[in-house]
Design goal:
The chain is α/β, with parallel strands linked by helices. Helix content is about 25%, strand content about 20%. It has 17 helices and 23 strands. It has an eleven-stranded mixed beta sheet. It is globular and about 85 Å long.
Length: about 650
């Protein structure tokens, strides 16, 4: 336990407890087991059970305990924490034509998400009472009632009254009467759970501990005046112009400008611009933007304003062209470029979204002001403008909030790597929870800490040091050897079908910060496939996969298991490097939605993990080479 597993606090008492625990397990083995002294011996079969058990988990069990069990309080200002966050929470699929669902809010809350997004628009009226709705404006996505979502969130709070605060990010496109109705609904449904900020809180932000069981609003704080758009509103309006143009796909099928993926790629590289919606261009001249309702098909005159379908053709939408023609929607105007904020809504809002102009101005703003950035701006601009710019952003994040969200070009609801945001101290990295991709797995691994409560104290390296410089971790060398698997399920957890031939990908997601700025660093290694054995595959090799970790406090280790025949995803596990235990360890595997039940309840990998100070390791290797040249003993000392 001490030498190989590096559990330096272990003694004979710990060993005897392990022996007693696993000798008491009923196993269909030889009766000779019973003759052993339970406190001094452990048979080979029982030792194998121990290796695969949660007691030998690669994820440090103490890091998975809730703050209450750790007897810790999250009592620092809320800016000192990473917060599990969702983007366009209501959507079940892509950003263009998927369903909106109240159930998605319950789903992401159950997964530990604590910042939810609500895109709110004017709906119909019932006896002259406004009915705010939630939808992705300017697209074919369906609508749900704002009140239904509020009631669903309140139901979660009723079942979890001591959870850490839920932040509702309000993307407000409503007129004043609808905003007043939103306020009435939230006050009525949430009652005392709705946090109404005191003026004192606008200077000194409260802690997660002080806000337990509360609902906190992020939106616009100033009231009764025309507000400038913040970054997210500008990006949202721009993406709506692209997305709403896709409705014209049912009117033409030729392809002259290229597919959506090609256009996106060309746009990101700076070679071209995504064609802009003619209606949106006209609306800007009038100071208007547009939203969609379901009342009637477009008139011929309205259709003439829509762009030709060939401007936005891709494989997915070619399928739509060949299916039955979908009815178009009436275009109505809503003045969203200069939305006025109802005083009643401003009164109950804590975080005020503002547009970033310069870090000098941002760092002079009140602490309840916050910025939102899309991932393209973060990776291509904010993190590539030199180390001084990174330092200014980290300084801002020490006392104020930043929210990062997927670019509007991610119309298929793909996710981005959250590590850049985490490393610069951004608290809210909003991801598309409906998409179970690699970066969603990374996010699940991060928030396994603290019992999945949704709040994790930021490491010291995400803050500026006292002398104003960026703190750095010591480089470490991580060595991983995949040894075996146990009870690996078939793809999608099905119980039928051919035997799988599993292989394992081992990836490290990291960030490096230098004079140029910050950038993502990802390395992936892969085992060979084991033919036709998902029950107990064994990888008979002695080589380690090696990874150099630049920022140990942020980096994430990801295991993914795939089937060789069709490369289908089987299971995964994501572990922060800071939570990793060394030695021979069991890696618990999860399904794509980060659930460990059914066919995944006992799935695991057995791996060997070593970690060294990289500089010391290089010196020790060099010393070993020198000794080999003189025919000395062949060993490496890390002392």
């Amino acid at each position: 336990l001490k030498k190989k597993q590096m559990q330096l606090n272990s003694g004979m008492g710990r060993a005897e407890k392990i022996f007693a625990t696993f000798n008491d397990i009923e196993m269909a083995k030889l009766s000779a087991d019973a003759s052993h002294d339970k406190m001094k011996f452990l048979t080979k079969s029982r030792f194998e059970v121990y290796l695969e058990s949660s007691m030998n988990d690669a994820f440090d069990p103490s890091k998975e305990l809730t703050p209450d069990k750790l007897r810790e309080k999250l009592d620092k200002p809320i800016t000192h924490y990473w917060i599990n966050s969702s983007h366009n929470t209501y959507l079940t699929g892509d950003q263009l034509k998927s369903h909106s669902s109240t159930g998605m809010y319950m789903e992401v809350l159950a997964q530990g998400c604590r910042c939810l997004e609500l895109d709110i628009w004017d709906g119909d009226k019932d006896d002259n009472t406004p009915i705010p709705i939630i939808t992705h404006g300017g697209t074919l996505t369906s609508k749900i009632k704002f009140e239904d979502v509020v009631k669903a969130i309140n139901m979660f709070l009723t079942q979890n009254p001591n959870c850490y605060p839920l932040i509702l990010s309000l993307e407000n496109h409503c007129s004043i009467p609808y905003q007043d109705q939103m306020t009435l609904i939230m006050k009525k449904v949430f009652g005392e759970r709705l946090y109404i900020p005191h003026p004192f809180d606008l200077d000194y932000l409260p802690s997660p501990e002080n806000l337990r069981g509360k609902v906190v609003l992020k939106g616009k704080k100033e009231s009764g005046i025309d507000m400038d758009e913040d970054e997210e509103e500008i990006d949202e309006r721009s993406s709506h112009s692209i997305e709403s143009s896709l409705e014209a796909l049912m009117m033409n099928s030729s392809n002259s400008l290229g597919s959506i993926p090609e256009l996106v790629k060309r746009s990101e590289s700076g070679n071209t611009e995504i064609p802009r919606h003619p209606i949106e261009i006209t609306s800007q001249l009038q100071g208007k933007a547009f939203r969609i309702s379901n009342e009637a098909p477009l008139s011929y005159s309205d259709r003439k304003l829509l762009p030709r379908a060939e401007e936005f053709a891709d494989e997915e939408n070619d399928r739509l062209l060949n299916s039955k023609q979908m009815s178009m929607k009436t275009v109505q105007t809503v003045d969203t470029q200069h939305v006025k904020i109802a005083p009643s809504l401003a009164e109950i809002t804590l975080f005020h979204g503002t547009r970033h102009k310069s870090w000098e101005q941002s760092n002079a703003m009140p602490t309840h002001h916050m910025h939102s950035f899309n991932d393209s701006k973060v990776s291509q601009r904010l993190c590539r403008q030199g180390i001084e710019n990174i330092g200014n952003w980290m300084k801002y994040n020490s006392s104020r909030m930043s929210r990062l969200y997927p670019s509007g070009l991610r119309y298929k609801s793909s996710n981005f790597n959250p590590l850049l945001g985490w490393s610069t101290g951004s608290q809210l990295i909003a991801l598309n929870f409906q998409t179970t991709d690699e970066f969603m797995h990374v996010n699940h691994g991060r928030f396994r800490q603290y019992g999945g409560c949704g709040y994790i104290p930021r490491p010291i390296t995400s803050f500026l040091s006292r002398n104003g410089t960026i703190s750095r971790d010591r480089e470490v060398l991580l060595k991983i050897r995949v040894m075996s698997g146990s009870r690996l399920p078939k793809p999608h957890g099905t119980y039928s079908g051919d035997c799988i031939s599993p292989y394992v990908k081992v990836s490290v997601h990291d960030v490096t910060i230098d004079k140029v700025g910050a950038r993502e660093v990802t390395k992936t290694c892969k085992t060979q496939a084991i033919k036709g054995n998902g029950l107990n595959p064994f990888w008979d090799h002695h080589d380690f996969f090696e990874f150099i970790i630049k920022r140990k406090s942020v980096a994430i280790l990801l295991f993914t298991v795939h089937n060789e025949s069709d490369d289908a995803f089987i299971a995964c596990s994501s572990i922060p490097i800071s939570c990793l235990r060394l030695g021979y360890r069991s890696v618990k595997l999860f399904d794509a939605w980060h659930r460990r039940s059914g066919a995944f309840a006992f799935a695991s990998l057995l791996v060997e993990i070593e970690m060294y100070d990289h500089q010391k390791y290089k010196k020790a290797e060099e010393a070993a080479r020198q000794k080999r040249r003189t025919a000395g003993p062949r060993f490496i000392s890390l002392d």
